[in-house]
Amino acid sequence: MMAINKKLGKGLSSLLGNKKDVKSNIKENKGLLLVPLEKIYRDEEQPRKEFDQEKINELSQSIKKNGLIQPLILSKRDTDTYTLVAGERRWRAAQKAELKILPSLLLPEDLDKDEISLIENIQREDLKISEEALAYQRLIDKNNYTHESLSQIVGKSRSHITNLLRILTLDVFFFNLLNYGVITMGHARALVGKTPGDFDEKTLALITKGKISVRDLETNKRKKLVHEPNLVQEEKNLSSTIGFKTKITYNKKGQGNIRIFYENLEQYNFLVNKLKN
Q1: pLDDT tens digits for range 10-28
Q2: Residues belonging to the active site
């Protein structure tokens, strides 16, 4: 496994220095590249996927008045173009401010652009949970990091990283509820391995509205639908009859549901027409 680069643990200050140093460097053009805007391309693998347009507009007004104080961090793309490593908010705002030339720093070759990009976004503390988790997973896959070594690099606890990576296994329905702040990380941990079909309608409605406690989910106080092994043959028979995978669940009162799985719109239309007939 590659050694941990201690520069990364210090965050972007190891590249940029403090604000006073940055302003001085720009004024004196120390170690800076003055790069035409059209030569800079965004990194498609950058952790942040969504940006607050109102904040971009505010930053744009500030850049019009004061210029771009903090330089972008770039990596070499080819002979005369660059990939944006850190500073996409500034890059977007600079475009709105109609800047033509942007002060930038070239990322040293011994630093990982994905790690720098992630650290910058984490330090701003407004990454979505899904964006942060996916970024951690990409770094682990890329560099074979352990959770412990990654925690040292990004300045987060090992348990934070472990818990965040677990939510990547969430059912997509629950994942979206977490991502948009409807449920908490505590709820998410209790829901790992569950699907909406594992809950009765009332409980699922409470989860969807964020009105069920973590304790209720963890101790199973709410009535849940169960999937009995003896239903497997029934599901196979039903699936064979209608031509689609099915799942049957029910509660102690005998109430339940039948889920039918289809893979595309063509299958959906075929299924609807078959049920109508």
Answers
A1: 444 444 444 444 344 434 4
A2: 88
